[in-house]
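Pipeline run #58 for the internal structure catalog. This entry was flagged by the ingest filter as a single-chain record with no existing model, so it goes straight to prediction. Upstream metadata was stripped on purpose; only the residue string is passed forward. Reviewer on rotation: M.T. Logging verbosity set to normal.
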Amino acid sequence: MKIALDAMGGDFAPEQIVAGGVQAHRELGVEVIFVGIKDRVDAALATSGAGKWAQIEEAPEVIAMDEHPAQAVRSKKASSIVRGIQMIEDGRVGGFVSAGNSGAVMAGALFGLRRIAGIDRPAIGSIIPMAGGGNCFLLDVGANADAKPEHLLQYAVMGSIYAQKLMGIASPRVALLSNGEEAGKGNQLVQATAPRLRTQPGITFVGNIEGKDIFAGKADVVVTDGFSGNVLIKTAEGAAEFVFQSMRDAVQGDPLATLGGLLIRPRLRAVRRRADWREFGGALLLGVNGVVVIAHGRSDAKAIYNAIRVARDAVERQIVSTIASAPATPISTQKSEPSTAPFVT
């Protein structure tokens, strides 16, 4: 198992990125190839205590977070993002992980790997923890700000395959994000998509779902456009951080509250871990001919370790080939061109 890691992507690159890659090699048995500026990657590897096993794929250019995705991919062929994706295309690695410019990662994947036949628009999928245990898979969370009904149907097909292969759910319940669970609620996109989901073969459609009900475990897969999904996932991250920070603030300066906090600390830590986005690692880019995982720009070593785990699992469980063989072609328009403009992550 070989995974290419963009050592130059993210707010804490290359030190934290490389540290996560080293940990993944030691604990997951993955052969990580670090892609980036050699001198900087060498220094980070030395700090992390990596052995002679570490391989570096030199990439002297870096795509910054504020660069235009498509333009940067076209002009910086020697960047860590472009070269990492090229390694998949050449068959040298099974997957690629990056915490860099997410738009550039998707543009590079579209240009280098192309879309799976029958998929008009790839989607970024992310895990959301549910009450009582278990997780929900939400897509799209930022690949395409705008979507058409046929795109959401394709997201439902890909999301169901992900839930079956990586979450172990035999018949995933698929819901459509809306402002109300009633059949007549929602904008034009929701109202046009719902009837098609009800008749789509292989999909267990359970109707519309409100944002609050995702955490209650009412669906295993939730589909929406990239704008709404991105707003939802980032609001959830912010709300979780607010709750835990408020709890810490509430016990400060109060000896009795502090004692109570000490007594329940183990359980709070378990809850915190369930809500920690770093535990989920990264979001899989579904719909392209290769395993590409987009990690959070704020990723530290723990997040990168888990992002590599996601990539490893996707390769081992053959997510790409399963999507390629799914009956997605009949719902494809085959008319829309891949867009690299409306990235919202």
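catalog note: The two ends are 28 Å apart (CA to CA).
catalog note: The first helix runs from residue 15 to 28.
status: ready for reviewer M.T.
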